[in-house]
Amino acid sequence: MAAFLSLGVASAAGTRAGTQITNQASAAYRDSTGTRLDANSNQVSTLVKQVGGVTISPDGTPSAPGQQQQAVPGAEVVFPYTLTNTGNGTDSFLVDTMVDSSVTNTVAPATRVVYIDANGDGILQPGERVALPQSGGKSVFQNVPADSPVKFFVVLQVPANATSVNKVITQPTAASTFDASKTDGVSGSTNYAQVNVVQDAVLSVSKSVVSTTTESNGDLTVVYRVQSTNTGTQAASNVILADDIISAASTLPTGSVVVAGSAAISPTTGTVTYPNTDGDSNASDQVQAVFGSVAPGQSVQLTFTVTIPASAAPTSGQNPYSNVATVTYTGSTGTTTTTSSNTADVTKAATAAVAIGPNGDPLGAADTTVGAAYTTAEGLTVTPDNADTQTVASLAAGSSVTFAQSVRNTGNSTDVFDFTVALSDLPAGTTVDLLRDGVPLPDSDGDGVPDSGPLAPGQTAVIQVRVRPPAQGGADANGGSVVVTATSSVDTSKKDTTTNRIGTVTAPSVSIGDTSGNNGGTPATPANQSVLPGAQAVFPMEVGNNGAQPDNYNLSGTVTFPTSSGNVPVTVVYYKDLDGDGVLDPNELAAGPITNTGTIQPGQEIKLLAVVNTPDSALPGPVTVTQTAQSPVTNTSGTDTNNTVTVLQEYDVALTPDRSGTTTSPGTALYEHQLRNEGNTSFGPADLSFTGTPAGATSGWTYLYSFDGTTFFASIGAAFSDAAARNLLGSVSPATLDPGEQVTLSVKVNVPAGAPTESVNQLSLTAATTPASPATGAVLRDPTGNPARVTDTTRVVGGKLAINKSVDNCGVLLSCNTVTSGADAFPGEYLRYTLNARNLSTETLTEVVLRDTVPANTVLAGVTGPTNGFYRVAGGSWTAVATAPVAQTAGTLVEFAVDTNSNGVIDVNETSLSSGADVTFTMTVRVN
To answer: Exposed site from 208, 343, 614, 735, fewest CB < 10 Å?
Structure first.
């Protein structure tokens, strides 16, 4: 397997539990007619499982605590902490506190309790002293979403008998209830804080956000308040409240400034300064207030305003902008102490915006850029304008045009854009496919709408919009349009539209007639054939495609002959006139009749021989031959009624005509034949004998026969006897088949399951005249040795190219030595997608290229294929599968091909797949 040599492991749990990772592949190829075609695989899906994870911050050890405060004996001390669910699903956590006694002179707190910081400001409010649910003596933090923080307090009371040499050292611990092995602090010293007991001044400090305002220019204005209270027993001198908003203790973005002159203090006896002493390039990121003395129980306060620039990235409650203030003071013994406040958090809301436009011009009419004209995959020219529209001048009904659209995230946060389409003035039945690199767009966020996948601010992506008017829709001189709308997932009110215009839709056209210099012959040219009863009349014919796209046509023709017992319809049988000489040559007859012309390119024609088998009992006179060529794709048809057969002037039975058809496995083909008395003596069951002989693919195939289309029998003879017994054989004497009368023989061919595609079964049916009491001199035109005969040819079909896709969970092994097919996956596990393409047709397919995309929430990890297999990424250079791919993110196109001629490169016509051949590649991804 070609694979990454190393893959980084994410620190968080990654993709959310319950996320469906869906993936679909496609292939492009050219069939034997030169027509470019597409095929899509089935879609496979993998469910991401939940994993647990938890962290508590800030960190600290007994010897190097993460937080320190001073307190007098009997005082309450509050330490703020943050618990974060680092798993990928909602979880609950058991939170406890531990006391350390490894450091000299440590004492246990008199009490310790945990409270939730409900408003997240880091300051314990009276209303937040709410007892938490308990389980086993531990507090329960319930239903914490993935990647979400919970701010909380550990509240301690210093023992009343503690002395100034004592310390109180504690830490909170947490354990996941989903996965009890996921903990923080339970088995290590990671979250310790320390209280130093003093008999002196003790100043606590807190910081809070008073207000936030988003200005018209996008700036965020924040008012902060810093407050310090002397909870000690002595006065503090030289008290300094300070804040450096751009520092290691702050996550405020670059460009944030303290608004000059905004600071206010209480009491007003202090002084305010705006120093520039931190050595950075921001001269406006510091503020401080100095108070000469703060008595026990007295509080001092500093309020100031900060501007966060509009260009700063948006944040969320899970990842806010944070800031910490400090208080520095001197105690009665001359010792200077600095204490940090809690973190004060603010969020900056995301702003959503999107632009979608013609190829190369996502802003459309909003700027002066005009995208360049380009050629589509179908070879059509599309011309963009500066009015948010791009146009293809003309499109043939039944064909497609693939427009390219540029979409750009013009907001300030990563966004996923949903795409919807609206059709205007196009024929009913027009279909639209949304693609990226030729592969159907995924639904990466699971809302049921195809989307762009995550786009970073300013990022542009290109999607394709493939439009196909129905083949049967006819012409539309005025054309129509498809309006594409891109809608933000961050703010669904933010959307943009663009228009794809089709100038005109042209209709298909066919001509059938006698041979001439015109394409498809000339229907107005009459032709006559004079024949004896029972003889053949042969008409040279032409069928021409006068449309703008490849097409094929079903052939049908009828002639009605009058006889002594009524009119007799005869079906025209068609053969290819291979040499164009207008004569049914032996090799052309041996090639067999056709019922369809096969694909005819625009402006081309096929030469045919229309054969009319005149009934033996036909009366003299001219009769008209009606012939039709009708497309099963576009429904267009042409008719010729100008040819005639003139009949110039007997025991006989006819069984007509040969039939051919296709069906699937398992499946059923139903054919109808005419059994006709063309003699002058009635037939009963004793006068006819029948056989049914299969050839070709016969294993498991079965056959049934009926003369009423409802009641079927295992033999034709039994069906005929039943029809006679039920008076179904005619109108004059319904128990017998009288001269000139005919009945319909229905043949049901049942194809077994598992029959190979393209296998062919030929069922030969015969009817022989074996009269019980023939008159003297009677002529048996269809004796046992030369019976009337028809053949039903049934071919098992699928599509031309079948694409099958499956997924295996490889666990944590990129080599995929052990797999669980279709299994759900954890983040960090590998998924191996297997793509198989098989040629179901009788022709050789060329230019077969398999396409797949890296699914959302995954990264490309490896590829495999045949020894002469190649792959390329995002339309780049072809690389042998033995060479490891470079890391590729979700949405990247990966294509596969085979060096069929083994020359070491992928040529224009590769991959080539002969009839029945297949090729298999795999693509392995890692779940984020």
So the answer is: 735
**Helix H segments across 576-676?**
586-590
- Describe the strand order of the beta sheet including 667-677 as a list of residue ranges: 653-656, 667-677, 742-751, 702-706
The tokens 């707190």 sit on which residue?
Answer: 109
Torsion of CA 271, 275, 277, 281, to 10 degrees: 160
The residue written with tokens 């079948």 in the block is 802
pLDDT at position 42 is 64
How high is the pLDDT of residue 4?
A: 33
Query: For position 162, what pLDDT does the model report?
Result: 93
Select the CATH number that applies to the domain covering 358-506 from these four: 3.40.50.2300, 2.60.40.10, 1.10.10.10, 3.40.50.300.
2.60.40.10
The hierarchical CATH code for the domain 665-796 is: 2.60.40.10
- Residue 241, both tokens: 């409240």
- Residue 660's φ and ψ, nearest 5 degrees, are -145, 150
**First and final C-alpha spacing in the chain:** 21
Angstrom distance (rounded) from CA 491 to CA 503: 35
Q: 911 preceded by cis ω (within 30°)? A: yes
Max Cα distance, the chain (Å) = 148
Neighbour count for residue 683 (Cβ, 10 Å):
25
Give the pLDDT of residue 841: 63
- CATH 3.40.50.2000 describes domain 205-334: no
In 385-459, beta strands by DSSP E:
389-396, 401-409, 415-424, 431-436, 439-440, 451-455
Q: Is the dihedral of CA 410, 415, 416, 421 positive or negative?
A: negative
In whole angstroms, give the CA distance from residue 243 to residue 324: 7
Domain chopping of the chain, boundaries = 2-31+800-927, 54-197, 205-334, 358-506, 510-633+636-647, 665-796
DSSP classification of residue 768: E
The arrangement of strands across the sheet holding 858-864 comes to: 2-3, 858-864, 918-927, 830-839, 801-811, 820-821
What is the token pair recorded at 416?
């996923």
Report how far residue 258's alpha carbon sits from residue 247's, in angstroms, rounded to the nearest whole number: 13
The pLDDT, as a whole number, for residue 229 is 95
CA atoms within 13 A on the CB side of 867: 3
- Which of helix, strand or coil describes residue 325? strand
Q: What confidence score (pLDDT) does residue 620 get? A: 67
Q: Whats the size of the chain, residue-wise?
A: 928
Q: How is residue 213 written in tokens?
A: 């305002």
Burial classification of residue 535, based on how many CB atoms lie within 10 Å of its CB (0-12 exposed, 13-18 middle, 19 or more buried)? middle
In sequence order, what are the beta bridge partners of 851?
Answer: 26, 895
The pLDDT of residue 621 is 76
**Domain 54-197 part of CATH 3.40.50.720:** no
Tokens 């993935």, residue located: 146
Rg (C-alpha) for the chain, rounded Å, is 43
Q: Are 156 and 112 in contact (CB under 8 A)?
A: yes
* Residue 13 pLDDT: 64
Q: Are 639 and 586 in contact (CB under 8 A)?
A: no
List the chain residues with pLDDT less than 50. Answer: 1-11
User: What is the C-alpha to C-alpha distance for residues 547 and 195, in angstroms, rounded to an integer?
Assistant: 90
The arrangement of strands across the sheet holding 510-514 comes to 510-514, 536-545, 605-613, 573-576
Report whether 450 contacts 443 (CB < 8 A). Answer: yes
List the structure tokens of 492.
């669904």
For the domain made up of 510-633+636-647, give the CATH fold. Immunoglobulin-like (2.60.40)
Sheet holding 236-244, edge to edge: 271-273, 286-294, 236-244, 321-330, 336-346
Distance CA 372, CA 381 (A): 11
Q: Which CATH class is domain 2-31+800-927?
A: mainly beta
Q: State how far the Cα of 567 lies from the Cα of 623, in Å rounded to an integer.
A: 11
Which pLDDT score, from 0 to 100, does residue 550 have?
84
Looking at residue 660, its pLDDT comes to 79
Fold equal for 2-31+800-927 and 54-197: yes
